[in-house]
Specification:
Strand order of the largest sheet: 3-4-2-1-5-9-8
Distance between the termini: 54 Å
Helix content: 25-40%
Largest sheet: 7 strands, mixed
Length: 269
Amino acid sequence: MGDPLDGDRLSAALSALGVRPGDVLLVHASLRVVGPVSGGPDAVLAALRRAVGPEGTVVVPSFTPENSDTSPQYRARVRGLDAKAREAVRASMAPFDPALTPAPSMGALAETVRTAAGAERSGHPQTSFAALGPAAGKLLAGHRPDCHLGEDSPLARLYEADARILQLGTGYDTCTAFHLGEYRRPGPPLRPYRCVVSPRGVRQWWEYEDVALDDGDFAALGAAFEEAAGPGVVRTVPLGSAPCRLVPLRAAVDFATGWLTEHRPAIAR
């Protein structure tokens, strides 16, 4: 393993990818995959903010599946437990608070953005986003609590803003923007979700129905997108131990909508 990445090398990689002042970036990062960075996630965030400049905005998913009993994380947590132990786990789940609830499964950079001075966060109790920059409020406003990642979520606002997706050590299998294509294809299946909330300070379980999110074929979708994209649409450079990509969000969502329409059956209602 080479020397840890420093701010200059991070900035050079972002410049080579084509990140520019004024950009709106939806960032997915696995710093474990990228490798050691001098200064850790704080240094990565500083490099991102320098790259987009004072007029640019950095957005990250700050999802919280830990307070739901319909999430894969919950199922993994209670696997093998008896009914009493499962109920104890459910009783221990804290309600979502946009100002305080951590997003540990989203990675160190996402948590660094979420907790940074001046950061804003959308209000969805399961699929919130956090952002830093002048467009943060507009991008995160109006995240309807029964719409994870559809037209009433920050993903649709990022689409309107012509944002770009920055993948730092991650792949298309975790490309959140593809989920907007799930909502835009005809007849997406629906399913119930449950999580813990606290309206007016009272802890309670809340159940709602929304599109059944499924990222199981996103790696194949991403490979098809890159194959179909024209030269220069997706830019890739090495960063530490990982390839990193800059992807136009609109193009990715538009392709995903068509690809998912073709590859997944519609549900008659």
